[in-house]
Design brief:
mainly alpha; 6 helices
C-alpha cells in the first residue's frame, strides 16, 4: 500500500511541476520519505512489489530549492537565507531567471558549521 502511495504522490508532484505550479515542500518531503521507506523495506525483505525491483520506485530528490524552502530546511527565516547569500556563504544560481539554491551547497554550508565549544561557553558566562 505504501508503494502505491509513494508512486501516486510522485506522479502528483510531476504533474504539478509539468503545470508549472509550486510543489509544497511538505509534499515533496513526504514523497521522498515514503519512497525511501518503500525502497529500504523492499530491499530488507527481498520482496518486490508490482513495480519490479526496489530501484524502479521513483525517487523525488530535488537538486535546486527556493529561498523559502532553504529557510525551512535550515530552520531560519528567509531573510537569514538572503543575508547568507549576500555574505557569499550560500551561492545563488538562476534557472531561466528563477533564483534557486543548490541542495548540495546548503548541505556543505551546514557541514561546515562548527558547534560552539561548551567549555569556552561556560567560561564566558563566569564573572
Amino acid at each position: 500500500m505504501l508503494t502505491h502511495l509513494a508512486l501516486a504522490i510522485t506522479r502528483y508532484i510531476r504533474q504539478l511541476r509539468k503545470d508549472e505550479l509550486p510543489v509544497p515542500s511538505m509534499v515533496d518531503e513526504l514523497a521522498a520519505c515514503l519512497t525511501l521507506y518503500v525502497r529500504t523495506r523492499q530491499a530488507a525483505s527481498g520482496v518486490n512489489g508490482d513495480y519490479g525491483t526496489p530501484h524502479d520506485v521513483p525517487v523525488v530528490r530535488r537538486l535546486l530549492i527556493t529561498k523559502a524552502e532553504a529557510a525551512e530546511q535550515l530552520g531560519v527565516s528567509v531573510r537569514t537565507v538572503e543575508r547568507l547569500i549576500a555574505a557569499g556563504r550560500l551561492p545563488l544560481v538562476h534557472v531561466e531567471g528563477a533564483a534557486r539554491l543548490r541542495v548540495a551547497d546548503l548541505e556543505a554550508y551546514v557541514d561546515a558549521l562548527v558547534p560552539p565549544n561548551t567549555e569556552q561557553s561556560e567560561r564566558g558566562n563566569e564573572v
